[in-house]
Every structure is written in structure tokens, then in C-alpha cells.
Design goal:
Layout (H helix, E strand, L loop, with lengths): L8 E7 L11 E4 L3 E2 L2 E8 L12 E15 L6 H8 L9 E5 L7 E7 L4 E17 L6 E8 L1 E5 L7 E2 L8 E11 L2 E5 L2 E9 L3 E2 L11 E2 L4 E9 L4 H7 L4 E8 L7 E10 L13 E8 L10 E5 L3
Parallel strand pairs: 2-11
Antiparallel strand pairs: 1-2, 1-7, 3-5, 4-5, 5-9, 6-21, 7-8, 8-9, 8-10, 8-14, 12-13, 12-18, 14-17, 15-16, 17-20, 18-19, 19-20, 19-21
């Protein structure tokens, strides 16, 4: 008997029309680095006091699906997951398509295929509860989608049918883009940023009810957008933005070797809430700034994602 190999594994997905119901249609392959998708169950124990101190009742309670999907971000292949993280869809444009934070959750069915042993796990009602992006020198733009879902089942047969291949686009890197920061509405390029990390947290949770082992729907909260900016210390500009509580604008663009797939993450209004400058060694001093993105009325969002236009 063969053991399932990671090199023979794959993920594919399809967008759901109805929460938790997998459409009978073609899936799309999702290029991944790693994932930790699983079905989990709560445990329910009996409460009786026993003179011998041993448990009599241990049962399975409500179940749900979830885990992380880690990828090297690239143009096109993860757009639907970016949309799911933002609760919205890209608005087409001639120069740029625009994606802003919205209010409409998006759900997927995701199949984990063990292709060498022909076994499958199907996760349904999957939503992007969190998005984490890391942009730093000498690495691809690493991105993690934290998923929360309704359920997961195992099968001897695939639910995916025909699986559509991903694009041939290359992953984004950190040296094919630009970082800009400044006052709201007037940012300009800077060249001393060593790392940017940011995340979106949608705080998605199941809403379990009596009479069902799985949730009938998922609840969600505020779209919290926060991040960390690390820069080489050369002047007081960034520290002053923290000390004086200056509202700022931040944008970071990334691209691939073709130069034709630039994506820009724009934070139209941020507050810098710390500016730490530790002395750690004899090399360059770094300043680390934590920031939160807040709603900006002109942009009508706290985060806007731009991609090449499709009109």
C-alpha cells in the first residue's frame, strides 16, 4: 500500500451560490505552498461525579472546518480569495480594477486531493476570516488565507470534475514594486522600508443551533486592518507621525518579472500607534511602526486593492 505524498497533493475550489452547497461544476486549481485545512469537532463530556474518578461519557459535539492556506501571491490566481477577504468584488476599470472593503460574504467549496491514493476531502461553506501579507527583501510576497467553514467530509471520489488549470503568472516579489507614504492624499515614494506586513481580520465564527451538528450560517464582525512597517532609521519623519498622531497614507505595489501584473495595496488613512527603535547590534538601526487602517471617506474604504484593468 502506498503512502500519500505531499508532492502528489492539490487543492481546488469553486465559489458557492448557496452557503454550504457545492455546485456541480468545474473546480479551479489553487497553487499553494502549504495548507492546514481540517474538520474539527468539539468534545462533550459527562458531568457526573464518579467515586472512582473515571469518565463515563465522552462524545463529539458540533463540527466545523478551517485552517490556513499559505501561498506566494501572484496575479489572477487568488483574486477570488482576495475578494472573499474584502467581502466584495473587483470593480472593473480601464486602467485599474478596484477592490474595496464591502459587506457581502463569499463562500467556497474546497477539495483537498490525495491524488496518488485517490482519496479526497471536501470542505464546504469556507470563508476567508483572515488575510496576512508579508513583503520583504529576498522573498516572494507570502500570503496566508485563514479559512473558517461549515463542514468537511471524506470521499473515495472527487467532487471537482474537471479542474481548471491556474494561470502561468509568476509570483510577486518585493523588488518589483514601490512603497509610498505621506499625509492623507499626498503620499510620495520612500526607499528605506525593509519590510511590510499587514492583515485583515473579519472575525468569522459559526453560529451553532440546537438540532444540527453544523452551523446554518457564519457570523462576521468588523473588518480590522492592521500592519507593521519596518524601516531603516535615517530621519524623524516616521517617528514624528507617531509622536504627533499624524494621519498618514500608505501604499505598496508589487509586481512579477513580466512587469505587467502590478497590484497595489493602498491604505488611504492610517494611524501609527508605535515607533520602536531598539539598539540590537552594531549594524543599521531599524524603526518598527505598528499601524491601523481606518475608514477614509473619499476612498470609501480602509483598504483598496488595485490590479490591472479588465475593461
Amino acid at each position: 500500500m502506498a503512502f500519500a505524498q505531499g508532492s502528489r497533493s492539490s487543492l481546488s475550489y469553486i465559489k458557492e451560490v448557496e452557503f454550504g452547497v457545492t455546485p456541480e461544476d468545474d473546480f479551479t486549481n489553487l497553487p499553494i505552498n502549504t495548507h492546514s485545512l481540517n474538520t474539527t469537532k468539539e468534545r462533550v463530556e459527562g458531568n457526573e461525579i464518579q467515586s472512582d474518578r473515571m469518565t463515563r461519557v465522552d462524545r463529539h459535539g458540533n463540527r466545523q472546518a478551517g485552517g490556513d492556506i499559505a501561498v506566494d501571491l501572484r496575479g489572477g490566481d487568488y483574486d477570488e480569495f482576495l475578494e472573499a477577504a474584502m467581502f466584495n468584488e473587483f470593480e472593473p476599470g480601464a486602467e485599474n480594477d478596484t477592490l474595496k472593503v464591502g459587506v457581502d460574504p463569499i463562500f467556497f467549496s474546497i477539495e483537498d486531493a490525495f491524488e496518488d491514493v485517490q482519496k479526497y476531502r471536501l470542505f464546504s461553506g469556507m470563508a476567508v476570516s483572515g488575510l496576512q501579507v508579508s513583503i520583504a527583501p529576498n522573498q516572494m510576497v507570502t500570503t496566508t488565507f485563514t479559512m473558517v467553514g461549515r463542514d468537511g467530509v471524506v470521499s473515495e471520489t472527487s467532487s471537482a470534475g474537471t479542474v481548471i488549470s491556474p494561470s502561468a503568472n509568476q509570483p510577486f516579489d518585493s523588488f518589483s514594486g514601490e512603497v509610498s507614504i505621506g499625509n492623507v492624499g499626498s503620499s510620495s515614494a520612500v526607499n528605506n522600508i525593509s519590510q511590510i506586513e499587514f492583515n485583515i481580520q473579519n472575525n468569522i465564527e459559526p453560529t451553532f443551533v440546537v438540532g444540527s451538528p453544523t452551523t446554518p450560517q457564519l457570523e462576521f464582525g468588523r473588518a480590522n486592518v492592521e500592519g507593521t512597517l519596518t524601516a531603516y532609521f535615517e530621519d524623524l519623519d516616521l517617528i514624528d507621525r507617531f509622536i504627533d498622531e499624524i494621519e498618514s497614507e500608505l501604499s505598496v505595489s508589487v509586481n512579477d518579472p513580466s512587469g505587467n501584473n502590478e497590484y497595489t495595496f493602498m491604505f488611504p488613512r492610517i494611524k501609527i500607534n508605535s515607533a520602536d527603535v531598539p539598539l540590537e547590534n552594531e549594524q543599521s538601526r531599524l524603526v518598527t511602526l505598528n499601524f491601523v487602517a481606518i475608514y477614509e471617506s473619499g476612498e470609501d474604504s480602509n483598504l483598496t486593492i488595485l490590479r490591472p484593468g479588465t475593461l
